[in-house]
């Protein structure tokens, strides 16, 4: 890999290698504590963050590197100075760039003009670091003895079609995992994203289903949800409409039982009693939300290790 920008820019073998490497680093972190020795990573954050900031900062430290946080003091990328200039300047100092931005065009611009690897820590279209951590989690639960068993998992995402669901369905299609996407009418992904996912699923043999009918969920192993109200869309009148439309799509114990699902997933932060009930989020037998959160760090360590070494080969 030259960069880590979007799920569909990876191959199945690259994803499996990253999942396997993440689990290995998690088990034996001391074996990887010099991967980034003497290297610095610039971390651009246009959007507020808890898990992304902490997991990257501490993960880079575990690999022996140094992380520099660049917050919103310089404003949105491309406004104070061109994205190309930002990328070229950072390339003079940093060995890699991690960016959590509003628009995918900013990620693409950084990758185009930087002379060091660029990692997409979130944009409006993709959240590949989250999806990789989620598939590491699924592998730990359902494919402990054989990574190939991951392809037997049935995963469903219920809620707003967003960057998280985009990355999840793309990665599922790439690795051969059956994926069901359930969104209220008018809140699903773009037609281009649906077509891209379906094409990848046909190649891998995975089954991809998109529906607006929650009753068509079917049998699942794991159910995933995310906030209904995205960051920046907290306008009270808009939120009231969203909550009314999405109410039938809440993930709760009854839905889990109906789908015969054993695992519930959420990328956090959760709006409890909206997209997921408090009781289910806190259910220690079914909820793996904090396992996912921890795996953000290990998955990102795997990405950085792969970008700076031949460990993944």
Automatic annotation (TrEMBL):
EC numbers on record = 2.1.3.3
Q: Provide the top EC class.
A: transferase
What would be one Pfam family of this protein?
A: OTCace
Q: Where is the Aspartate/ornithine carbamoyltransferase carbamoyl-P binding domain?
A: 3-140
Q: Which Gene3D superfamilies match?
A: Aspartate/ornithine carbamoyltransferase
Record keyword Membrane present: no
User: Which branch of life, at top level?
Assistant: Bacteria
**Per the database record, which ranges form the Aspartate/ornithine carbamoyltransferase Asp/Orn-binding domain?**
152-306
Q: Which UniProt keywords apply?
A: Transferase
Q: Which GO terms fall under molecular function for this chain's record?
A: ornithine carbamoyltransferase activity
Q: Which InterPro entries match?
A: Asp/Orn_carbamoyltranf_P-bd, Asp/Orn_carbamoylTrfase, Asp/Orn_carbamoylTrfase_sf, Asp_carbamoyltransf_Asp/Orn-bd, Orn/put_carbamltrans
**Does this entry carry the keyword Transferase?**
yes
Entry similarity comment: Belongs to the aspartate/ornithine carbamoyltransferase superfamily.
Q: What is this protein called?
A: Ornithine carbamoyltransferase
Organism, by scientific name, is Thalassotalea castellviae
Q: What is the lineage of its organism?
A: Bacteria, Pseudomonadati, Pseudomonadota, Gammaproteobacteria, Alteromonadales
């Amino acid at each position: 890999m030259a960069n880590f920008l979007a799920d569909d820019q990876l191959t199945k073998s690259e994803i499996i290698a990253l999942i396997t490497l993440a689990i290995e680093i998690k088990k034996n972190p001391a074996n990887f504590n010099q991967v980034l020795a003497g290297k610095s990573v610039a971390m651009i954050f246009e959007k507020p963050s808890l898990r992304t900031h902490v997991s990257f900062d501490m993960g880079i430290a575990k690999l022996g590197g140094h992380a520099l946080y660049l917050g919103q003091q310089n404003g949105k990328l491309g406004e104070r100075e061109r994205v190309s200039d930002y990328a070229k300047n950072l390339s003079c100092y940093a060995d890699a760039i991690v960016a959590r931005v509003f628009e995918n065009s900013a990620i693409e611009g950084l990758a185009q003009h930087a002379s060091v690897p660029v990692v997409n820590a979130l944009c409006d279209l993709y959240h590949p670091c989250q999806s990789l951590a989620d598939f590491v989690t699924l592998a730990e639960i359902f494919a402990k003895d054989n990574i190939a068993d991951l392809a037997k998992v049935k995963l469903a995402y219920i809620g707003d079609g967003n960057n998280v669901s985009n990355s999840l369905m793309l990665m599922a299609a790439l690795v051969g995992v059956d994926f069901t996407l359930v969104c209220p009418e008018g809140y699903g992904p773009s037609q281009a994203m649906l077509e891209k996912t379906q094409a990848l699923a046909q190649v891998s043999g995975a089954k991809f289903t998109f529906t607006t009918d929650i009753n068509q969920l079917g049998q699942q192993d794991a159910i995933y949800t995310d906030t209904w109200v995205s960051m920046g869309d907290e306008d009270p009148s808009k939120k009231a409409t969203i909550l009314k439309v999405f109410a039938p799509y809440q993930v709760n114990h009854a839905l889990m039982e109906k789908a015969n699902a054993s695992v519930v997933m959420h990328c956090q932060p959760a709006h409890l009693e909206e997209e997921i009930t408090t009781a289910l989020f806190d259910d220690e037998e079914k909820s793996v939300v904090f396992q996912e959160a921890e795996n953000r760090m290990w998955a990102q360590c795997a990405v950085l290790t792969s970008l700076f070494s031949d460990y993944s080969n």
